[in-house]
Amino acid sequence: MKSRTVMYLTAMTLFAALAIPVRLAAQQQQKKELPRYTVTDLGTLGGTFSVALNINNKHWVDGGATILNDAAVRAFLWREGVMTDLGTLGGPNSFASFPLNERGEITGFSDTSTPDPLGEDFCGFGTNLICLPFVWQKGVMTPLPTLGGDSGQAGEVNDRGQVVGLAENTTHDSTCTAPQVLQVRPVLWEKGQPQELPTFPGDSDGVATAINDKGEVVGNSGECATPGFHALLWQDGVATNLGSLGGTMGNVPQDINNQGQVVGFSGLPGNTTVHAFLWENGVISDLGALPPPLGIASLGFSVNEKGQVVGTSIDEQGDPHAFIWQQGVMTELNDLTPANSPLFLLDGNNINSRGEIVGDGFQVSTGEVHAYLAVPNNSEVSESATSAAPVETRPRVVLPENVRNLLRQRLAQRYHISAFGAPMN
Question: Which of 217, 325, 231 has the alpha carbon at shortest distance from 284?
Fold first, then answer.
């Protein structure tokens, strides 16, 4: 008997064969309208790995990068060509995982120096230390309080200084799997004080991911070991179910802009895969994936004020390909960059109002993964950046297994979903 995956791939291939003439014509038209991008390798903090996760309209970039000998991973701020280590809350590791605001406040999570009394590994670094959410500004990293439990993580901060994320309470949760023990709840921090947000009725755990400048919050809820049963929008503390693309799991909003457009990813019927979605005015729409074999799944990560969406499309090998979606068409970002670029772009993690995109890319010459900044050619660019060339389809890049594992670990850290992979060592 064929596996569900093989049956799914067969169905997708058949669908693609029927749709290719129209799809290719639409893509060719879209490529003429989309700019080409100049790509800058942002480097690392001395190690072999970095990922850019966010960019504001001041051209500030944050994310995570490894230090010398890959001994630890640190939250960083990249500004005017310089990557700065933001430090930790006493432990070896930290990570800036969601958008910074225009005031220069950066949020994330960090190891402390205190062993977790329950043996949890909440940060996902493999250290089993208490993990705390933080806000960093002007050289100072400040921890945020939990809901009475030991650990938490901060998500996005808006321009009003409101922070969302997740935090443990003191309840031992029977839906958790080792090493997680305590219940995890969605949180909004106002002036440093936590306010618990409600989950969907019957769900024990939840995560608040993003917040816009109106104070509208998105996230998801479910069970401790299986989050993403329900995609949620909170307005004035009241939760609304955004629905799904037909699946009952993997429904995870990632961003909301000031127009109230929400992007993320959602399970398809049968929970065989996930697709990027756009939700607006009460309607959730499937953004699809790149044409097979590049797209058997897709994840939407960010939407800017113009409604442009970036994310990643997963191919049949499990390798990610950065995409940009606008006006109904998804285009691989690598097709809009120089053919001789040293970086193959894996993820589009964030896009600002100027159309500048950040993420991580595979450095073909070294086998390392580095943070990148992709700037539309009509914008000012760094002298060190790679100049753009005529648009052409890039050759496929197959990632080494160790790089795939590294990317799964990062997904596990960012989305607090253990099923994505093991903690980063």
Answer: 231
